[in-house]
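Team,

Forwarding the record for the chain on the shared tracking sheet. I've put the sequence and predicted structure together so nobody has to dig through attachments.
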Amino acid sequence: MLLVLCIDLDDDLGRKTGIETPVIGRDAVVDAAVALASNDPEDSDVNVLFEGVHIYDEVDDEEVEVAAVTGLEGSDVAANRAVGEEVDTVLASLAASDDVRALIVTDGAQDESVVPVIRSRVRIDGVRRVVVRQAQNLESMYYTIKQVLDDPETRGTILVPLGILLLIYPLTIVVELLGYPGSALGVISGLLGLYILARGLGAEEILDETAERVTSGLYAGRVTIITYVVAAALLVIGGVSGVQRLDAQPEPHTVVEVLASLVAGAIQWFAAAGITSSLGRVTDEYLDGTFRWRYLNAPFYVLAIAAVLHAVSAFFLGNQDLEYLAVMLTGGTLLGLVSTLAFAVAEARFDRPDQHNQGPGGPSSE
């Protein structure tokens, strides 16, 4: 007896149609194939099922049966074990006296990894791999490229490395200060690389989500939108101030002096940006009714860190002595500790456990 086994290792049939497997018999396999095609016409397992039915109809010189067995999505080991168990069920449904031989039908090498498991249970006459024939024209090529660009996994695997490779040449030109004769070609290559890299990383989706979040924030009256813009501007000013402070240092520069100069020139602007953004976030939390006293720690932490970094940079630049550094380190630490304890006490005293589940108006009266 010839048993035609249609293999679906990742259980597309069960997951997409809800049909219990194994599926045994020509009519049952045809119904399963139609159900899978109705749910996902592009699934290659549809062709596997119909190929099994086609082989069943072609064999007329011996007794034949067709069945579909499935594995599990994810682990190959668990999937192979599940296929083996379903093959046992299929064999148990056949007449025990028959000399059963199997013909395996798959859609690729991944499903064929289960062949040793089936061979341990029944003799295998052969493996039939189903390959779908498609028209080799411009339309099919366009569809294939479109599918590749829309698939996140494929984009990350193929397009991201390709985009990085295209960026190598223009980066080389930038290093040579655009003095190379092929600079125009480098610019074009760089633009193409940035586009492909953005497509591979799904940057257009991130930009769309950001724009939607900003629009929603504007209509909802989010204070953080304003404070984030101000903070970004302060960060830019801080970067410029740090570079100017570095340029004002006498030559030569050591690594420590470079870092200290950048920090000394930028830290006050960075601290202002951190305090501004944190206060905006605290304001929005209060308006949403989810305010916690501990959220007020953020601006004090920023101020303490800024004071410590300013003292350290001033010490390494020779503008302050060791005593000033010790005082600022101690003061920054005490500021962080005092704010933490103070707001923890305020939260324990003024917050009720059910207050955070209420709106901006506070807990409801009983």
